[in-house]
Each structure stands twice: as C-alpha cells, then as structure tokens.
Amino acid sequence: MSTPPPGRLRRELGKWDLTAIGVNQVIGGAVFLMPALLAAQIGGWSAIAVAMVGLLALLIALNFAEAGSRFDGTGGAYLYTRAAFGRFVSFEVGWMLWVTRVTSWASVVNGLTDALGYYWPELRAGQPGMAREMVITGVILSIMSINVVGIKQSAWVVNALTVGKLTPLVIFILLGLPYVTFDALRPEVSLTWGQISASALYLIFAYGGYEVVGVPAGETKDPKRAVPFAMIMTIVIVAVVMTLVQIVAMGTLPNLAASRTPLADASLLFIGVWGALLMTSGGAISMTGNNVGQALSGSRNLYALAEQGDLPSWFGRVHPRFQTPVMAIVFTSLIALGLALSGNFSTLAASSAVSRLIVYAGTCAAVLALRRQGPASFTIPGGPVVPVMALVISLAILFGATPIQRRVGLIALAVGAALYLVARWRSR
Predict the structure, then answer these.
(1) pLDDT at res. 193
(2) Higher per-residue pLDDT: 383 or 32
C-alpha cells in the first residue's frame, strides 16, 4: 500500500469496518441500561417504542446513506450541509455533531462505571473515594492513545469489541426468550405527551451513533458505496437486537424499572450467577467499544472543521508518523474527560440526544437541497416522502425536549457560532 502524502489520511476502512463502527457506536451503554429507564418512563409500551423508534432511525439513516453516497471526504453531516446550505449552517451542524460525540462519550463512560459497580460498589456514583474518577480517567486516556496510533488499529479494536458486545446480547436473547412472561409486555395505560417526549429522547440517544458512519469516509476505500451499505446494515442489526433485548428484560425481570443493572439482574434469574457475570462483562466491553468509536468519530469531526478552515488549523494537525488527526483526538478526549467527571449518564444522554436531533434535521434538509444538484449514487425511493417525514419527526421530538434541554442545545449552538466568527476573523 502506498503511503499518502504528509498531512493526508490513509484510506484503510472497508464497508464491514464501517458497519462495525456504526453498530459499535449505537450499541453502547444504552442497551444495557435503557430497559430500566424506559420501563420507568412508559412501562409496557417500552418494547413497542423501541421497535417504532428503530423504524424512525431507519428513515433518518436512509437520508445519511443518500447524502453520504455523494461524498468521499472526512466530515459526514458537516460535508452534506456545507454543499447544501453553505459554511455557517454546515459549521453549526458539524459542531453539534462533535458536541454529540463528546457528550455521548462522557455519558457512556459513566454508564461503564455504573455497570462495573455491580461487582465493584466503589465505582457507583456518590460513593466515597476516587475509584470512579480514576477508572473514568484511565479509560479515556487509554482510548486517546489507541486513536493517536492509527485508524487501522482503532478499527481492529472496534471490530473485536463489536463481536465481544454482540455475543453476550445474543446469548441473553436466546436463553431469555423461553422465560418471557408475555403478560408483562402488555401496555397498561395510555401515555401523556410528556412521557412520549421523554422516552423518545432516551431512544434517540439509544439508537444514535449511526450518523458517524460517514464521518471517516476520507479514510475509507470506495466510500460512496461503503457508506450507504454500512448505514442501512447498522440500523437493521441494531433494531433487531435492541427490540429483543427489551422484550426479554421486560418479560423476565419483575420491577424492571427499579433495577440499576437490568440485564445483569434479569440474567441472574434465568441463567444464574455466570449469566450476571456475562452481562456485566458484556456491558463493560460494549461501553468500552463505544468509547473507542466516540473518540474516533468525534476527533474526525474537529479535523474536518479545521480542514475546511472553519476552526483554527491547530485542530487539523496530522501526526507525522501515524497520520492521524492528533490534536483533534487529544482535544476531544480531554473535553469528554471533563464532562464525564462532572456529569451522569441520564443527564448527558439527554443532552446528546438534543444535539443529535439538530444534526439529523440538517442532514434530512440537505438531502432535499442536494437533489437539485443532480442524482446521487444511492437515492431513497419515493421522492421527497422519506426525507420530509424524517425531518418533521426529528423536529417534533426536538421541540418536545424540556426547556433546560433546549437551553443547553442553544448554548452549544451559540458557542459554536462564536468559535466560527473567531476563526473567520483570524483567517482575514
């Protein structure tokens, strides 16, 4: 393989590498922690809600697939909206894509310590001592080092951890389905709009991550084919796994809503002690893999913004030996570390969902605009129906967020706008 020119990224990834990155990003802490949160929020409706939001995620992913089939550079939604709406709008979308990554990474690493707290109580939030903080710091700095070494090394880790996280989930589903009490799956009462909105935000977070598939396109072989394939395969795999996991958790664990480690607690009932250990280990592997992917994709967001001149060139500096965006990786990791040490899983998850919805809406709108410039390599059937539906639903869920969640999103947009203006002023 020829070495790319200095300052350029290597094209090392194939379509299944991208699929593994997508599955790894979506199946993180949420699948191990969300069953209890959803049960507390909407009770017996939760399995239905998981399946329905899976269909919504597929509608949005199709928009990412069409937009991604037009580009072969690094940046994902940032590049799509730049071509459709110009520099400022695209910067805000790219910035919010990065905000999504760091808040999600911080959320999931908190979920990792919560999962490990099943056997190591000192890691639970609020416990005395520094064990939790030391584990969070060690995990984030280790992942930062892996990402600096190279994209291929990061992909190997992601691929291995993706297999490692899917295996215990498949065992949980196959061994748990015969024990499901289907009466527990029956919706009990009608839902309020507040319940629907809150659960939708949680599920947007739970399904979120597939949008990163297009971000490392600049390091992908044949990205115009690989990106649409990986987008669709990611959602299909994830929707099946998450829906079945919710069914098994609801149908086997009494008082699911009160559990802090729902899959481990459910496995203890129908598998035994080794099942609880398997789920705890699987959760740790899953969330570690998700963290690796957050660092990989989040740093590429910053690199793309700097590469296009919308952030200071410092963020676009490439390591002379490893040819990775080293400054973007370090900065992303340190911000995620600060957020992780100061927040908790559910708060950071909601913040990540709000910023993610802005990215989704921007991409769906970009698909409609880009169609005026000519056909894409992959086009969603049905004309404007799917992009318009996905855009409307994304905006509806976004406006259903709580005032504090919307305020956090507006603050993030304002910070991004200030950075953009500084970068443009310095460039002049």
Answers:
(1) 74
(2) 383
